[in-house]
Amino acid sequence: MKQYQHPTVDQISLTCVLHALSDPVRLNYVQCLAKLTSEQPCGAIPTPVAKSTMSHHLRVLREAGIIHIRTEGTQSMTSLRLHDLEEKFPGVLDSVLKAANSTTSVEEV
Amino acid sequence: MKQYQHPTVDQISLTCVLHALSDPVRLNYVQCLAKLTSEQPCGAIPTPVAKSTMSHHLRVLREAGIIHIRTEGTQSMTSLRLHDLEEKFPGVLDSVLKAANSTTSVEEV
DNA sequence: TTTAATGTTTTATGGATGTCGAACAAGGGT
DNA sequence: ACCCTTGTTCGACATCCATAAAACATTAAA
Fold this sequence. Notes:
2 copies of one chain form a homodimer.
Chain A (H helix, E strand, L loop, with lengths): L13 H8 L2 H13 L3 E2 L9 H14 L2 E6 L2 E6 L1 H7 L3 H12 L6
Antiparallel strand pairs in A: 1-3, 2-3
Chain A binds a DNA duplex through helix 3.
């Protein structure tokens, strides 16, 4: 049973969050996760890259404090840390997601 | 008299904006620019890097559509494209600047 | 106990990026 | 004319980063 390391709220850095969201593949994943509103295994969200690459992206998102990853059986359940991010940086994730939805459709990537 | 190239509003990309803001030096510059509320020459804002490096950073900010650069005499006047960004991605720059001010003091960098 | 499913880690690679010094360009002031 | 100020550009360098194949780990299912 793999245990994942997550930053605490006060360890979350703005530049790290922005950097994590600045990649199209990662932003699209976060966008999908927000739309689905519930915990999702990595594989449930279609991506244009290899699974090893996706594993790397999810690690970046996790270490930035944007998503939470939890093991359940063979799959990794991912969820947005909405509350934590809103507490730390009010409005940021929200406006970014709105902006993402206004320009890119989820299926494009 | 040097002429600078700026993206139009519909050419501005969210991932490019986020990437531009994800660098501490650039974010700090934007933060200062927002505080001063008026057009500023590059040199008016203190930075921890060489001027050639700063020139590169300002280019990234300009090409992302975050700042406008205009030549006046020997100096380059920089200003935030607040209106354009608000039109394209409502709330994004605003919340990011608020978040930046809540964690990093301008003088630190 | 095999076999399949789901991710992670490792290793490698090509491209982008932040950094700086030196040379250059252009204006203003003396 | 000369120099100073202010930036830009170029070349170089070290580092980071997105990508993927291959091997591995773990759990579920047959």
